[in-house]
Specification:
Blueprint lengths: L1 H7 L19 H18 L6 H8 L11 H19 L11 H21 L6
Helix pairs in contact: 1-2, 4-5
């Protein structure tokens, strides 16, 4: 599933040969798959966010059906990403407010459960 999703992608890295004389010895689909996978890897490696747009950008091109992703997972990740961004970029290291360790621990467990569910739900792309 992931290989067909990648081959159907077009990041502009490779085009169809226009003439048979232009076809190289490398197999077209192997080359296309490798280039598209490299584009996805680059996107993932340059990602430093955990918001829904980042998650969708990483997984949808691999063949994950975005409608199958639990909206609660995306919402929790958006909330966590916003909080993280605020603390990292707006507070300049100053303590603006105290966090409740229990609330954050519970939030972490909830997100972990949602990630576990997500992983079970995307096993189909590995087949």
């Amino acid at each position: 599933m992931a290989s067909s999703a990648l081959c159907s992608r077009n990041s502009g890295n490779i085009g169809m040969p226009q003439e048979t004389s232009l076809i190289k010895n490398d197999r077209f689909l192997d080359t296309r798959f490798s280039k598209e996978l490299d584009a996805i890897r680059k996107s993932i490696n340059s990602n430093n966010g955990a918001k829904s747009s980042n998650i969708l950008l990483m997984f949808v091109p691999l063949g994950v059906d975005e409608t199958k992703i639990n909206p609660q997972l995306l919402s929790e990740c958006d909330s966590l990403g916003s909080d993280r961004g605020f603390l990292a970029h707006q507070t300049a290291g100053a303590a603006v407010y105290l966090i409740d360790p229990r609330t954050e621990y519970d939030r972490t467990l909830k997100i972990q459960d949602l990630i576990d569910e997500f992983e079970r739900g995307i096993e189909y792309i590995l087949q």
